[in-house]
Amino acid sequence: MRRFFNIYDNSNRSNNLITTQNCREDIIGELEAIIQYENHLFSTDDPVARATIQDIVDEEKLHVGQLFGLLFKLDPISQRQFEKGYREFTTDNEK
Ligand SMILES: [Fe+2]
Q: How much distance in Å is there from the Cα of 58 to the middle of ligand 1?
């Protein structure tokens, strides 16, 4: 996985920041996995392969939710801003 931000070079960073950044990278990893599995899902007609891959895709989406729960615990500002963005989206699309 590519690294977006190398926090290990700075010894002044708190462990909470390291855990938060790792969580964000893990969310990216789960989203990349979803993209890969869905690409593979739609490139096969084999019903057993499709069922297996779809089950894995669903599990990866669950992992995204779990990691967002962890991120929101570690960084409540992220939760507030994400929820604000979600409300803006739903308000803008109710029309
Ligand atoms: Fe996963």
A: 9
